[in-house]
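hey so u asked for the seq, here:
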Amino acid sequence: MNECINSKWSVRELQRQKNSLLYERLTLSANKEKVLELAEKGQILKTSKDLVKDSFVLEFLDMKENTDYLETDLEKNILNHLKKFLLELGKGFSFIGNQLRLTLGEEHFYPDLVFYNRLLKCFVIIDLKIGKVTRQDIGQMQMYVNCYDREVKQKDENETIGILLSTDKNETIVKYTLSENNKTIFSSEYKLHMPTKQELIHAIEEEKKNFELVE
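ran it, structure tokens below
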């Protein structure tokens, strides 16, 4: 209810967020204090990690899982449903552009999607991947983030955030490729259907395992 009021959702948007288990996804990896704050105040963006859901639900793209499609097909479909994608991203996002050229020396690079979050005052770069995230994907995203931090962002803005959005976030590779104090690059999965309770239970069990490994 608090988030509905704060974000001024329409009835249709509220129903969609409820059906997509938004609350459960936001609390999946949160500690008790964060869950209590979410219940009392709605979603509060304080850190870069608060931007990243686990997982993102893209059922509105009307694309079938386990079928052949390219990353370009996924990007095009997101652009065609940009308003709904912004709703799924969460608070404070504005769309900057897609395939915006970055020139480094004589080479050109093109991040898939670039957003700006006015609440955290930072750019957010999203690269779309099909299959497992690789070390090369992480390295490329690190390059994008570094480039935006050094060449694009203003002095009063915060560090750029990079999100690798894939069908398999490959947590182990991400964990050991990035530094332990990493706060700018994240890997998250997307689903092309509404999550089921069974999937949520499985996700919670996986988070518990990861927490135990850290401990």
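Strands lie at 56-57, 93-98, 102-104, 107-109, 113-117, 122-128, 161-166, 185-191. The two ends are 35 Å apart (CA to CA).
lmk if thats what u needed
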